[in-house]
Specification:
The chain is an alpha/beta fold. It has helices at residues 30-40, 62-73, 90-95, 98-101, 108-116, 166-175, 189-197, and strands spanning 3-7, 13-17, 22-23, 50-56, 77-84, 122-126, 129-135, 147-152, 176-184, 201-206, 213-218.
């Protein structure tokens, strides 16, 4: 499928799949969405502690990089696992402007390491942040009570409803430790019902810019 790099409304870039009219991040602002959904309503709930994170849809690495940057201020130690079935190309990563838009040029070596590190191997980005990238289909995830937090950032229900099924959310539920959470930009009723069916307690929160609502689910 044809792909192109586009600039979102907050100035940050993303990848658009033209055939689907679907982007890796919100057209209203890639960075704004990541910070609102995954940091403010997810990571920030775990200050001053060790946090194990599973990201569903590693994609451009934006969520990973922002987590690395923001975890310092939250005094956290992060064990991060990013799952992606179809890794983004090196040329596409080089076209992303996240270093400039996040004012993080001094962390360029970390951004490069996020993408250059080998798949299926745990690497230390710093003394307090480890990363494992897994090339894996979401339906093949079989972790059991390993994570405190899930960033659920799959392509939207409109284009890939199978990624938002009870089968997938059952795997997410099993992967979380008790009393842990999953956050996602989604706010469809059918998604909420799938989450509730497997045991999640779901709350509706204010969404990121350009989107009225989002979900946070607790095990």
């Amino acid at each position: 499928m044809e792909r192109e790099i586009i600039r979102t409304q907050d100035g940050s870039t993303t990848i658009q799949i033209k055939e689907w009219n679907e982007c890796y991040h919100s057209k209203h602002g890639a960075i704004q969405e990541a910070k609102h959904v995954f940091i403010k309503n997810g990571l920030a709930l775990f200050p001053n502690q060790k946090v194990s994170i599973l990201e569903i849809g590693f994609g451009t690495g934006l969520n990973t990089f922002i987590t690395y940057l923001d975890a310092k201020g939250l005094d956290q130690s992060i064990d991060y696992v990013g799952v992606e079935a179809y890794p983004v190309s090196g040329d596409e990563i080089e076209a992303m402007n996240y270093l400039e838009e996040l004012d993080a040029l001094d962390s360029k070596d970390i951004f490069v390491k996020i993408h250059s590190s080998d798949w299926e191997e745990k690497v230390k980005l710093s003394d307090t942040f480890s990363l494992t990238k897994r090339k894996q289909f979401f339906q093949d995830i079989d972790d059991v009570e390993q994570f405190d937090l899930i960033y659920f950032d799959a392509f939207g229900y409109r284009v890939q409803p199978e990624l938002w099924s009870t089968e997938i959310f059952e795997k997410m539920y099993k992967a979380l430790k008790p009393n842990s959470i999953l956050v996602t930009y989604a706010a469809r009723g059918v998604v909420k019902r799938s989450m509730q069916e497997v045991g999640f307690t779901v709350e509706k929160l204010a969404g990121p810019p350009g989107k009225r609502e989002m979900f946070r689910a607790r095990k």
